[in-house]
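Query structure, 383 tokens:
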């Protein structure tokens, strides 16, 4: 009888296990299919949410000006954002096109003749002799040099075209994200309520506080990283256009990317300064140098002023999260990394504030004997 009961229980257990396995497997397949369907929309929606959180205060102010029409306010901000994306792109593409045309005309000219390399070039450690011989070949026989390095030139042109194509795709993605952000901002109350409900459901009573922390961290990163990069690129780009530097639009765009990646703008500014001193008079070249150097170092002043505003998280935590997130996940990692580290910082500080188990009990136990002793010494005196 016992053996039959054990066999019956074992059969039920196996059936339940197989049924659970099949259900879980079907759920996993459903989740994978769902992810494949929504995968193209994940990044634009994330960017739309980030942009909506960052621009929401401005939307509310514009709503007051437009007599409560939030949808119109969100649409206007989205169109302004698209213009900010498209106009610099047109300028950069025009600058690139002019540069390519000028280079093509220069190479096709029969009078093309580069100056020979200085003798000091060969003295540069490790690469001096190679640079000297290549430079000398281009200076003495341009046609032969182009034939010899045709493979390298084609690879460089292909890489450059790939970068341009990727940049265009990124701009299109951001335009879509701005339109999504406009929808989020137009229905901000319902979206905020849903986010708070999900946050409370997932992490408990601190969910609503953390939802506010995420929004504040996104705004902090936008001001401290992207905002500073934009200001820095505008300052340097203004110098490039004022002094009519070739490919000024492209240089400004590269400065913006370097600043977002937290790399010093001097990486591209210093070669331009050397180029300026090679053909300009001393006075304008000095003015240009002072201008771009101050603009290149401006992030050291702007970043402490803007990073961490409105957030109780220390600036180094947000900055480390932004840099690490960008290294691991690209530009969107700027925000995701900062948000993740900010949440971990809040978890750590909350854990540190929690009382240790047993500490309160020990203190009570150490006090009670003293009170009983004091009572025993007082009673004889009262008698």
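Result returned for the query:
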């Amino acid at each position: 009888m016992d053996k039959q009961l054990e066999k019956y229980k074992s059969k039920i257990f196996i059936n339940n296990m197989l049924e659970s396995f099949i259900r879980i497997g079907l759920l996993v397949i459903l989740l994978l299919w769902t992810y494949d369907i929504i995968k193209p929309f994940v990044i634009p929606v994330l960017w739309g949410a980030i942009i909506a959180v960052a621009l929401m205060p401005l939307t509310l102010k514009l709503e007051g000006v437009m007599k409560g029409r939030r949808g119109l306010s969100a649409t206007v901000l989205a169109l302004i954002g698209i213009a900010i994306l498209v106009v610099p792109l047109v300028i950069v593409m025009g600058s690139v096109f002019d540069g390519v045309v000028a280079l093509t005309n220069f190479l096709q000219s029969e009078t093309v003749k580069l100056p020979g390399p200085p003798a000091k070039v060969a003295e540069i450690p490790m690469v001096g002799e190679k640079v000297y011989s290549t430079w000398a070949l281009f200076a003495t026989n341009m046609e032969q040099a182009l034939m010899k390095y045709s493979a390298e030139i084609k690879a460089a042109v292909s890489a450059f075209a790939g970068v341009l194509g990727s940049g265009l795709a990124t701009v299109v993605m951001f335009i879509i994200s701005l339109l999504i952000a406009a929808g989020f901002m137009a229905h901000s109350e319902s979206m905020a309520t849903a986010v708070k409900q999900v946050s409370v459901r997932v992490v408990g009573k601190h969910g609503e506080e953390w939802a506010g922390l995420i929004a504040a961290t996104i705004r902090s990163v936008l001001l401290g990283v992207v905002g500073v990069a934009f200001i820095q690129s505008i300052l340097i780009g203004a110098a490039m256009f004022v002094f009519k530097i070739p490919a000024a639009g492209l240089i400004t765009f590269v400065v913006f990317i370097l600043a977002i990646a937290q790399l010093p703008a001097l990486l591209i500014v210093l070669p331009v300064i050397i180029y300026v001193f090679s053909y300009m008079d001393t006075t304008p070249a000095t003015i240009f140098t002072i201008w771009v150097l101050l603009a290149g170092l401006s992030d050291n002043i702007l970043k402490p002023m803007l990073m961490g505003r409105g957030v109780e998280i220390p600036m180094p935590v947000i900055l480390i999260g932004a840099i690490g997130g960008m290294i691991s996940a690209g530009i969107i990692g700027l925000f995701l990394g900062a948000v993740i580290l900010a949440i971990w910082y809040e978890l750590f500080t909350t854990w540190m504030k929690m009382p240790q188990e047993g500490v309160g009990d020990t203190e009570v136990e150490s006090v009670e004997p003293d009170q009983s002793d004091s009572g025993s010494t007082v009673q004889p005196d009262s008698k």
